[in-house]
Amino acid sequence: MQLKINETILEIKKGDITKEKIDAIVNSANPRLSPGGGVSGAIHKVAGEELWKECKKLGGCAKGEAKITSGYKLPAKYVIHTVGPVYGSDEKPAELLKKCYKNSMETALKNGIKSIAFPAISTGIYGYPVEEAAEIAINTIIDFISKNEGIEVVKIVLYDEKAYEIHKNILENLIKKNEKIEKLKDMIKKMERVLVAFSGGVDSTFLTKICSEVLGKENVVAVTAESELYTPEEIEEAKSMANFIGVEHLIVHTDEMKDEKFISNDTGRCYICKKELFMKLREIANSRKIKYILDGSNADDVHDFRPGRKAVKEFNVISPLMDVGLTKEEIRFFSKKMNLPYHEKLSNACLASRFPYGERITKEKIKMVYEAEKFLRSLGFRVVRVRHHGKVARIEISENEIKKILEFREKILREFKRIGYVWICLDIGGYRTGSMNEELS
After folding, report:
1. Above 90 in pLDDT, residue 419?
2. Domains, the chain
3. Is the Cβ–Cβ distance between 207 and 171 less than 8 Å?
4. Which of 128, 150, 249, 393 has its CA 20 to 30 A from that of 370?
5. Which run of H or E residues covers position 171?
């Protein structure tokens, strides 16, 4: 199983690392660099006593670091020794494991090594779960060879069949994800200039970043809607993200509350909101002779009730992330790799989504929801929704924080009653997206 990145080949194979005819193999060593069990014992056994004699002179090795010796009787010219974390014992094991792979490859580069083979570090007696370790190994290697030239071949050699299958499947899935990214870039490349409906959330930020890389920052305009339905914090985050990416950013005011159909809040409310936004975006695009308007809808959105998609079609808005099949999880994955801030940011629908269909939406009610959610966040709750049912506030938070919120019971009661709610209840089902659509199914 192979993947080529720039001029480097990454290969996953089943076999015996001590038999690899390669510039260097990596030893999953102990801190003393002494012969042990597993991979380390096998390497020392084949290399002979001379390897241990040289290792003794190195004075051991700290976890996450790497040291190099000759390969002696091994087919490999060198052995790079690295000490992985003990799972469940060492702090920040993932960071230490990343360092093992990164420092081993840096050592290889410093010594002119063109080909290197890794075992599955720390997955033996050190107890690191193979699935987690494989994700870290493959992603760290790919990240390194994407940014550094010089190594021509990187192998991960697995003796165990199950470990091999796990690594192979992870690489296969990664290849499929990368194919989606290439397809996305090819699609955008044909557009020349674009206007992006930019909320500053994970999806639209990722899309805007890709557009800026493919088309150039000067050919991308990001536009954010501002109205009573969006919090001031969201607008500021959108400004910050657009500035980080470096594209032109416009704020356009939308006035959904002037439309009686929106205020009456039937199941088509989202369509009216999107129609208002896309109408403004089309005006801006036409004035700048920009043909393409893009939004950040992703492949997961097809599984929820989305009346706003009707407006997408009416105004010829393109949803590239959805079209190439990128899911939210995949978008977060690539956003993290691209070092985009807020890649773990929660989805945050407009404040109108806090009202059950049929309840009229007013500016006063919107303000109540905003103040209530802001207060809960000030208490340290990150995942928050306050669903507005007349005089009742139904609080949704993540399931693992349901017990914790009861510690603030008196404070929440006082503040919510000050805001205007008479009854305050906690939804024991926890937070879930689109919970107001549950009554439709």
Report:
1. yes
2. 2-175 (3.40.220.10), 191-337 (3.40.50.620), 353-440 (3.30.70)
3. no
4. 249
5. helix 161-189
